[in-house]
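Obj: model holo form, ligand = nicotinamide-adenine-dinucleotide.
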Amino acid sequence: MRLSGKVAIVTGGGNGIGWRYAERLAAEGARLVIAEIDEAAGREAARRINAAGGQAIAVRTDVSSEPDTLGVARAAIEAFGGIDILVNNAALFANISVKPVEELGVSEWDRVMAVNLRGTFLMARAVLPSMKACGSGKIVNISSNTVFSGGPSMSHYVASKAGVIGLTRSLAREVGPFGICVNVITPGLTDTAAAEQTISKDRFDVVVGARSIRRRQAPDDLAGTVVFLCSADSDFITGQIINVDGGHILH
Ligand SMILES: NC(=O)c1ccc[n+]([C@@H]2O[C@H](COP(=O)([O-])OP(=O)(O)OC[C@H]3O[C@@H](n4cnc5c(N)ncnc54)[C@H](O)[C@@H]3O)[C@@H](O)[C@H]2O)c1
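Output (holo structure tokens):
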């Protein structure tokens, strides 16, 4: 097990890809804090990890709220004594408006930015004191490969995910001297209920056809990269974008 004794917070760990990250980190020996706005899903994720012999708690968290992010960091320290890993996965993606810029409302723009970008910033800020005190830590931010391809009529989403890359790079420079690595994954279109609600079947087919590896992407295709970036195997990697999309975007 590569993460024995580590404490990991996974935001949005109750559903979709985040659940898969949480399950795989637990399988590698990490103790899990599921930070979820969907309370029932968070509780169920923790229950399943505990039932499988792991250790997990769920904390109802809205990552766009500063008090909530400070609260989940406190809960992690109280339950498990510290924080070694943060996976910033929570985002608004399901059911966001898909509209051209002229039709996109300011409140919709702000809502997506508040969760996807401010939430990533607030969670990092909340865990850094504990990581600095240990002199080590791993932060894995989740962006999207739409940053490279452009996602028509999803300007708020794509801009928020581009912001996550900028934040990652800046933070990596800032906290590297404290032994903390910060990296970002850009997943391709991945099979989750959220993706199926937001992206048409035709678009899924077009994306599969554009990949070097011509098949649909599953949450499991991403989980190994998260484990790697949370483990000692990646201790000299920071500030990097890891694109996991079956060879769709080559850069
Ligand atoms: N599925 C894809 O095709 C795809 C592609 C590229 C990137 N991504 C990114 O991967 C991540 C997971 O995507 P997914 O498809 O599993 O989506 P999802 O909607 O299934 O999962 C998002 C999770 O975040 C939680 N969440 C939403 N708002 C929150 C908030 N304010 N505070 C805390 N939790 C909140 C939701 O309850 C949910 O559990 C997201 O960051 C998404 O942008 C997904």
